[in-house]
Amino acid sequence: MYTRSPAKSRPGKKLHVLLPYDMEVETLTRLPGKSLMKFLCVSKIWYSLIRSQRFVASYYAAKPSRFIAAFTNSVFGKPERLFILSGEEEEEASSSSSSSSSSSLVANLDMTIPSVTLRHGSFKYSSVHGFLACSEGLTFIICNPSTRQVITFHCKANGTCLGYDPVDDQFKALTLLTSRYDLIHNPSLMCMHEVITLGRGGRVVSRTQVTSPPYRRMTVGLCINGFIYYGASVPNQTEALPPPPPPVFVCFDVRNERILSFITTPKDVLVWKGFTSLIEYKGKLAVVVPICLGGASSFDRFNLWILEDVTKHEWSGQSFQLPSSLPFTLGMGERMISQGTNKAGEIIFSPSTLPDRAHPFYVFFFNPDTKSTRRVRIHGVADTEEFWSRYGLTGICCVSFSPQHNDSIAFL
């Protein structure tokens, strides 16, 4: 049996224990990102460890994903504020065999960003490798809920989207500079883009320009495995009375900074244009298209289009029937959209605006395999009078719900 020597057991004597590096990493990766930010002040050794690229990568790989709910105090409210909440996702999807079931999750406030409003129609922000990004006019905002770092920089046009290059561990922002009005007057005009490369400290490392054949952008962008995708239309230049421009998906290579291809697309994929929901489905680009017959304000069926082969431009499509209808008003009313899936492969539908004052906030999980739907209440979002008063909410408040956000303690 091991016994400490008398010299080591004297009162006031400090006992220093050196843990192996792997054990330190294993211990620290179990902690929340906010706690690690406080531990940066403990010692120079811990500061160097937590900020090292090796530990940042280990932490990102080890932490389970969370859901993010971001909302603004009002579409037209002053002062403008963006609130970001998050919560732990379910370990496993419900195994209930019924066509529908209910459960709940809890959201807690992570951070508040002043002078930012999610405008109606641009309600979706992007979650890219631990960072969130959204546009406020010509200002592009990137933040990390774990570190509370906020970066803003000026763009030359609206509609900037964030991409991540996993090979070089590099973030880049893409902006289409050529407007649709320029193309109306000159359909053969080459499109000009600006690529902004971001470095440490949130500084802009470089701004380069990239050209491509003409097109008109139609949707927000989505970054998957180092490529940014968004829907577009290509003008027809050969006939006096051209038919409607064919839909495509623009594929931008983040690492090599070039428009890789225009992916031909079935016309039904982009039927809703700006209201089209782009998601990542089992590692592939997918599009959720609600079927609203006769201009109905709700849908109980939707089509799921999956880009099966990027090189061959091959898509697969399947229709699904929902157990009950979901709203889809194109105006300022209530609308359910899809913003992604969870690890179980369930497609998640969420509102684009907060519900009426002090009403529960629900998201819906649809399982394509079992054809069942789960209703999940998000506690801590819009469901009490105290919530509305605390955040100064009035009128129509846009909200963006994102599943499977991976925590990162990286700093730009």
Automatic annotation (TrEMBL):
Record-annotated F-box associated beta-propeller type domain positions: 83-387
Domain of life: Eukaryota
Protein's name in the database: F-box domain-containing protein
PANTHER family with a match to the protein in the record: BNAA05G37150D PROTEIN-RELATED, F-BOX DOMAIN-CONTAINING PROTEIN
F-box domain boundaries: 19-55
InterPro entries named among the record's database cross-references: F-box-assoc_dom_typ3, F-box-assoc_interact_dom, F-box-like_dom_sf, F-box_dom
